[in-house]
Design brief:
Two copies of one chain form a homodimer. Chain A has a single domain, classed as Tetracycline Repressor, domain 2 (Orthogonal Bundle), CATH 1.10.357. The first copy, chain A, is built from nine helices and no strands. The model of chain A has no long low-confidence stretch (mean pLDDT 93). Helix content of chain A is 78%, strand content 0%. Chain A is mainly alpha-helical and 196 residues long. In chain A, α2 crosses α3, α4 packs antiparallel against α5 and α6 packs across α8. The longest helix of chain A is centred in the N-terminal third of the chain and has 25 residues. The radius of gyration of chain A is 19 Å and the shape is elongated. Chains A and B meet through α6, α7, α8 and α9 of A and α6, α7, α8 and α9 of B. Chain A binds a DNA duplex (30 and 30 nucleotides) through α1 and α3. Chains A, B: One of its GO terms (biological process) is glycine betaine biosynthetic process from choline. Chains A, B: One of its GO terms (molecular function) is transcription cis-regulatory region binding. Chains A, B: Pfam families: TetR_C_6, TetR_N. Chains A, B: InterPro entries: BetI_C (IPR039538), DNA-bd_HTH_TetR-type_CS (IPR023772), Homeodomain-like_sf (IPR009057), HTH-type_TetR-like_transc_reg (IPR050109), HTH_TetR (IPR001647), Tet_transcr_reg_TetR-rel_C_sf (IPR036271), Tscrpt_rep_BetI (IPR017757). Chains A, B: This is HTH-type transcriptional regulator BetI.
DNA sequence: TTTTGTTGATTGATCCGTCAATAAAAAATA
DNA sequence: TATTTTTTATTGACGGATCAATCAACAAAA
């Protein structure tokens, strides 16, 4: 019984279903039928709206990225000092919305898939660059440029590393501990400089 | 034309072929025929020696892990002080043998697969624990126990994070830079404590 | 003649993507 | 207003491709 204006609702439902399916299976090896089933529609409809599976996956990654970007913008707006900006960027990556098992699993899976898909790789590179420049925007106010660059690189690596370890359910158990770890690193790096 | 004693040679060749195939494709989505072809045999032979595909993949991960463990032992043997032991553990992870594109891709792919395969997950957890205790064996000589634990956790996260970023071919470009980044972190962490 | 090495051919399952068909809403036309 | 037509929503069924795993068969060494 077709009601008009279904398209945006179905697209959203299918993308949500994709994330939860990936999260449960822990990889992109989910079938279109599985995803469609979770969204309460047939696989034919998923193809109708997204064309190929690749595009559904791409749209899903775009959605995750867009949410992260929005959260990041919000967090940066409410940070007044350079130091606060750095902490805000870190905190967003471990917020309740971002640091969920499904989202983490999706990130990891997409990282792997990016090695095959050029489109996905481009998306992830854009995110990486944005993360770096966001971190830098805070750090350059405190450290000399080339050292700020290093610290930004290390912080980004720490974030990714803590995501991976969380996916393995080994090592750092929760977001608070993860944040504390990175903040500890930043504190030693920044307080040291400011003390000299 | 069968010659005796082929089994160990074929096993080795198949495992090597698996690593190079995974490295090239960037994921575990490689067919048995592809792997067998690279090893110069038929896919039927691969099944003959390894049974199922899962077991070939598992054997491959075991092989990578065994090599890393051997390298680690060697490096630790030639380190005399606690501080040197820490650096040795870090260095091994970025040695020419370990920090190759194929090996990195394989690691990443296996991390993802571990979410599906319990056997693989067990393997990776063993590795994670060993890495942690190796780092700790050096750090406990310098830092109080609970802080040593934290630093070990952060170092492990940095290693994983730098692997991921290398896989994306973005960020840190080479092993030397990666090592410098981690050593810089360790130096600030350790020199600070020893100065107090 | 038994063991070891090896493969081509085949089977069975999975899964993506397409298509024809159906149904209801909306728009156009009479 | 009544009708036809078009657009939007939706699915079951199916074709075709891929691939893991098996098996029968063959060859050479022991």
């Amino acid at each position: 019984m077709p009601k008009i204006g279904m398209e945006p609702l179905r697209r959203k439902a299918l993308i949500d279903a994709t994330i939860s399916a990936i999260g449960e299976r822990g990889s992109l090896d989910v079938t279109m039928s599985e995803i469609a089933g979770r969204a309460g529609v047939s696989s034919a409809l998923a193809h109708h709206y997204f064309g190929a599976k690749d595009e559904l996956l791409l749209a899903t990654m775009r959605h995750i990225l867009a949410e992260l970007t929005a959260d990041m913008r919000r967090a940066l707006r409410s940070a007044s000092t350079a130091r606060e900006r750095v902490s805000a960027v870190v905190a967003v990556n471990f917020s309740d919305v971002q640091f969920r098992p499904e989202t983490i699993a999706a990130w990891l899976a997409f990282y792997v898939e990016a090695q095959k898909s050029a489109a996905l790789r481009r998306l992830l590179k854009v995110y990486a660059r944005r993360l770096h420049s966001n971190l830098l925007s805070g750090l350059t106010g405190i450290l000399p440029r080339n050292e700020a660059d290093r610290v930004a690189e290390a912080t980004a690596a720490l974030i990714d590393g803590l995501y991976i370890r969380r996916a393995l359910k080994d090592g750092v158990p929760n977001a608070a501990t993860a944040i504390a770890l990175i903040e500890d690193y930043l504190e030693t790096k920044l307080s040291r400089r400011s003390a000299q």
